[in-house]
């Protein structure tokens, strides 16, 4: 309850009637149909199937939408910055420094020919051009690697991405995002390339760091169970629309047939089911306005 | 139906073993699950079973008969495989019909073209899908095509390598239902490899946990459901699956 109050008074990110379309004129296809949500200092999950538009939203906030995308909204802000009107120079200061983006697969997101320590140091130097001492950057790199619980930071900093495991790679990515000290993290499927035991480690770490630094997190995922256990609030998306927004702890009480269908279609370790209930998609879901509660 | 005895696999003669001393049996009409994390050797075992990897030590028996490492053509009439990625396992420039007919052509079997339509209908696709290309289908539809292709020769055994891990949960439910229906209708034997304990628990009768190329624990589905497993690695997997998964055993039933 307190979280919701905080969110209402002082949102970090606010989106109102956000629409994203690809293509021009007559041929334009709208993929996100006027959605609204706010993010406070909380963990907000965005859940939906492939193609629901969840990653598109994450990129629109960072203004990293591909060329040809048209983003419009009544309001799209980060604190008091209007993300639709900000100049590219302002956006450059925002990206990484204030809003960090963690992507799914560290294998593709890290530069394969640069040691990971150097990549983290580069982030620090980019965001602190005034005091970009190589030594300070190196020291900060080691301490942030320690913060993401890498046991031997000196050794790991010298390794190349192919020499580290997937879990370590994801921790390096998190370190890289945190070193600039952002207020908001957008994590796009941060653990779907990882094994369950590694996923547990990475999420526990992320949780601790968010808690201790008081960040806001948008977790984009297709995994309803993960979001339900990890996040404070959940936005359920389907075909570019928000079906409903609810507290993660109240997901069991979800009323929307889509949410119920998604929950029902999960196989379970503990209960035996002959058949899994299959989702029947109701065209009427596409008519409802994408308003958040 | 399938028996594996003391299977050892290494990728070079001086390389370490990636699969070490593996033995298991799969009864006809049942589903055997291999579960483990990336790199534990579960897919390697499946590829050896399928005859895609011919350099192994130990014995693989089908119906009590030992198989030669280089499988004869008749083997593929009895055992077929479905791969993880329905985007990679279908030929991008062949129609679905051409791809479904290929197993028949390989075996020199002549059948009327109508078998294509029947195969598609048996996996819940319209007959008209025969004239589509893979890029015109969704991920779930492609995996249905891959299953239809594996069933063209009416095999007795299907080897399933993470058949749903590239799919959304809603589509996963459809594919898992389809596989269970086909298993019952045709008395198929499945060997299912997955990293997802929930999928394994849902589908399998007997389950083996692999770690570092070895089977470290094996049990049946009822034991997994009851959560009465004691091996430390199995417990670790279970705890990790539950932590950000469905939660521990005594839980509120989902509708």
Automatic annotation (TrEMBL), chain A:
Domain ABC transporter positions: 13-264
Stretches of the chain forming a coiled coil according to its record: none
Major localisation: membrane
Cellular component terms (Gene Ontology): plasma membrane
InterPro entries: AAA+_ATPase, ABC_Ni/Peptide_Import, ABC_transporter-like_ATP-bd, P-loop_NTPase
Superkingdom of source: Bacteria
Molecular-function annotations in GO: ATP binding; ATP hydrolysis activity
Membrane-topology descriptor: Peripheral membrane protein
Cellular localization per UniProt: Cell inner membrane
Matches recorded under Pfam families: ABC_tran (PF00005)
Keywords linked to the UniProt accession: ATP-binding, Cell membrane, Membrane, Nucleotide-binding, Transport
PANTHER family, per the entry: DIPEPTIDE TRANSPORT ATP-BINDING PROTEIN DPPD, OLIGOPEPTIDE TRANSPORT ATP-BINDING PROTEIN APPD
Family the entry assigns: Belongs to the ABC transporter superfamily.
Name used for this protein in its record: Peptide/nickel transport system ATP-binding protein
From TrEMBL, chain B:
Gene3D superfamilies noted in UniProt: P-loop containing nucleotide triphosphate hydrolases (3.40.50.300)
Topology in membrane: Peripheral membrane protein
Ranges for domain ABC transporter: 4-237
Catalytic activity: glutathione(out) + ATP + H2O = glutathione(in) + ADP + phosphate + H(+)
Keywords: ATP-binding, Cell inner membrane, Cell membrane, Membrane, Nucleotide-binding, Translocase, Transport
Domain of life: Bacteria
EC number: 7.4.2.10
GO cellular component, one term: plasma membrane
Cellular location(s): Cell inner membrane; Membrane
InterPro entries: AAA+_ATPase, ABC_transp_ATP-bind, ABC_transporter-like_ATP-bd, ABC_transporter-like_CS, P-loop_NTPase
GO molecular function annotations of the record: ATP binding; ATP hydrolysis activity
Entries under PROSITE patterns matching the protein: ABC_TRANSPORTER_1, ABC_TRANSPORTER_2
GO biological process annotation, one example: transmembrane transport
Record Pfam families: ABC_tran
Functional note: Part of the ABC transporter complex GsiABCD involved in glutathione import. Responsible for energy coupling to the transport system.
Subunit details: The complex is composed of two ATP-binding proteins (GsiA), two transmembrane proteins (GsiC and GsiD) and a solute-binding protein (GsiB).
Family of this protein: Belongs to the ABC transporter superfamily. Glutathione importer (TC 3.A.1.5.11) family.
Protein name: Glutathione import ATP-binding protein GsiA
Taxonomic source organism: Chelatococcus asaccharovorans
């Amino acid at each position: 309850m307190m979280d919701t109050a905080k969110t209402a008074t002082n949102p970090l990110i606010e989106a109102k009637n956000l629409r994203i379309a690809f293509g021009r004129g007559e041929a334009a296809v709208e993929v996100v149909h006027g959605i609204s949500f706010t993010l406070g200092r909380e963990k907000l999950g965005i859940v939906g199937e492939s193609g629901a538009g969840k990653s598109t939203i994450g990129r629109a906030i960072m203004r990293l939408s591909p060329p040809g995308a048209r983003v419009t909204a009544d309001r799209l802000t980060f604190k008091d910055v209007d993300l639709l009107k900000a100049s590219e120079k302002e956006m450059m200061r925002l990206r990484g420094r204030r809003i960090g983006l963690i992507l799914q697969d560290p294998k593709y997101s890290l530069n394969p020919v640069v040691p990971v320590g150097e990549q983290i140091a580069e982030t620090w130097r980019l965001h602190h051009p005034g005091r970009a001492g190589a030594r300070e950057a190196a020291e900060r790199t080691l301490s942030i690697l320690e913060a993401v619980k890498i046991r031997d930071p000196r050794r790991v900093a010298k390794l190349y991405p192919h020499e580290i495991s997937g879990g370590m790679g994801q921790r390096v990515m998190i370190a890289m995002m945190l070193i600039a000290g952002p207020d908001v993290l957008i994590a796009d499927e941060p653990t779907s390339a990882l094994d369950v035991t590694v996923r547990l480690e990475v999420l526990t770490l992320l949780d601790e760091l968010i808690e201790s630094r008081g960040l806001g997190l948008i977790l984009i995922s297709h995994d309803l169970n993960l979001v339900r256990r990890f996040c404070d609030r959940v936005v359920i998306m389907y075909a570019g629309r928000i079906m409903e927004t609810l507290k993660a702890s109240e997901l069991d009480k979800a009323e929307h047939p889509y949410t119920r269908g998604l929950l029902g279609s999960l196989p379970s370790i503990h209960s035996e089911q002959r058949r899994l209930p299959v989702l029947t998609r109701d065209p009427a879901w596409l008519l409802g306005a994408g308003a958040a509660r | 139906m399938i028996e594996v005895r003391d299977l050892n696999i290494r990728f070079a003669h001086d390389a370490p073993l990636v699969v070490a001393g593996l033995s298991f049996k799969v009864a006809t009409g049942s589903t055997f699950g291999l579960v483990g994390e990336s790199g534990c050797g579960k897919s390697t075992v499946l590829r050896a079973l399928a005859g895609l990897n011919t350099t192994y030590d130990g014995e693989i028996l089908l119906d009590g008969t030992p198989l030669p490492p280089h499988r004869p053509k008749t083997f593929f009439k009895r055992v077929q495989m479905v791969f993880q990625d329905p985007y990679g396992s279908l030929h991008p420039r062949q129609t679905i019909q051409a791809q479904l007919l290929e197993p028949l052509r390989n075996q020199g079997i002549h059948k009327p073209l109508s078998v294509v339509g029947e195969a598609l209908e048996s996996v819940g696709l319209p007959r008209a899908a025969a004239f589509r290309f893979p890029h015109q289908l969704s991920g779930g539809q492609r995996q249905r095509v891959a299953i239809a292709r594996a069933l063209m020769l009416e095999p007795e055994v299907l080897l399933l390598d993470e058949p749903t891990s590239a799919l959304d949960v809603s589509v996963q439910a459809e594919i898992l239902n389809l596989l269970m229906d086909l298993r019952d209708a045709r008395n198929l034997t499945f060997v299912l490899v997955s990293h997802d304990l929930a999928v394994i628990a849902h589908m399998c009768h007997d389950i083996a946990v692999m770690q570092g190329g070895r089977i470290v624990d094996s049990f049946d589905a009822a034991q997994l459901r009851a959560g009465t497993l004691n091996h430390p690695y199995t417990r670790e997997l279970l705890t990790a699956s539950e932590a950000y998964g469905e939660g521990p055993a005594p839980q509120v039933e989902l509708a």
